[in-house]
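Let's practice the habit of predicting before peeking. Look at the sequence and jot down your guess about where helices and strands might fall. Then scroll down.
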Amino acid sequence: MLLFPALWMLYACGSRNDDSGKKVFRMNIDVGVTSLDPAFARNQMNVWCVNQLFNGLTQVDSNLQIQPSIAKHWRVSADGMTYTFILRDDVYFHDDALFAGGKGRKVNAADFVYSFRRILDPKIASSGAWIFSDKVKDGNAFQAPDDSTFIVHLSKPFPAFTGLLSIQYCSVVPHEVAEHYGKDFRNHPVGTGPFRFKYWKEGEVMVFLKNERYFEKDEGRSLPYLDAVKISFITDKQTAFLEFLKKNLDFFSGIDGSYRNDVLTKSGDLQAKYQGRFLLKKAPYLNTEYLGILIDSNIAIVKSSPLKYQKIRMAVNYAIDKNKMIRYLQNSIGTPGNAGFIPLGMPGFDSSVVKGYMYNPAKARQLLQEAGYPNGEGMPVITLNTTNTYRDLIEFVQSELTAVGIKTKVEVHQGSSLRELIAKNNVNFFRGSWIADYPDPENYLAVFYSKNFVPAGPNYTHFSNKKFDRLFEESFYEMDEYKRMRMFQEMERIVLEEAPVVILYYDQSVRLLQSNIKGLSGNALNLLDLKRTDKE
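Done guessing? Here is the structure:
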């Protein structure tokens, strides 16, 4: 593969001064990228890369508001089941030899019919098939009456549908390229995004170049501002952080526990030695960290556990000092989970309306006594299951529970092993997290819908409440957003009263930037969007 010299230097050299006048954004991904095909945009790193290369009908802005992307505008039928999208006429796929003359052709509505049917195609086996599998009858639900009109017929209303379409799975792909490369489309991606794919040596380096024909503008200025994005794959976080300190990286995401105290004070600020050297950006991240409790008494493991009693579960909630946990174990990264399951940053979050459990050890002891276990006497030991990554956090929880009389044993598993145990209902007390796929509270409350029991759905606690289910189902038919949010808040109160979960904290994203990086946008989904990023 022949590349002109300036671009070869982007990935052939390691020095930060080899740009030849180009604005090159350098970042590191420590867990690897498995695919650049939107059909497999399952993990955050895949999503971050796919988001630079592709677009969908809609997109989410920094305030989690749904905005047009390739769709100029849309309308929804009165029954909420038919969505009609009118497409822009200035969106082109990236250049590729499979197009006539090697020039990327214009995107049309038939491309979205193909792309969405592809997600549902069992031969593709997309991890995003869930997006449409329970919302449309089949691929005939997608129609293109003309080049600029795309129609989706849902089998039932889903008010969050335009937000759902902002997920990277729903990006448009060209049929001639996707079909030609088949599985190899993962490393030969052709999209419409602000950057186009150039090079990927797996485990070492990836390069994206500016898309000169990108359709979006910023107050009349063509996007993107960067000339290229160079991604390295240093797996050791401390080594990558040292590269950032040497200014060989422009961006660094997350602060690993192994060096968190070196970088951050307990109040979450930069340590004095780093102040002025780079920028620290913290923001809400739609990730609720929690303890899940299996509560279905028909399951054998629950029958023998004291956690089957509501008052014991409430006592566990009251026993944990979340403020201390966040300050001393997280260096104040995160917000104590003192409201509902819906996290801070999500539309509908309101801690003044949905009040969760504050630290109250006296109340915890009172509930233990009322449940027949004064000071925990006679109460069997309960086992809390976690992974090694969260061991320190869970051992803190263990000490808090022990302090009020709830004897707890911690068991540490591999991540995949614990997920399997949870899916098979073989553990009844476990650490979990729920990260938003799209910016709507329904995405969180689906975790407690009784028809979503595992393994088919995400209801890991087997929570079941008739009033909750009724409200959840009615919410799909409520088009008034204010009333819909009130319904979600009522559902939250039901969950809090039954206490199938212990909400530990609402997460925050942490980003470190070199001081010459401007305009890096993000949102509470922790999406990486580089189209307005500039490098001075």
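How did you do? The domain at 285-509 is CATH 3.10.105.10 (Dipeptide-binding Protein; domain 3).
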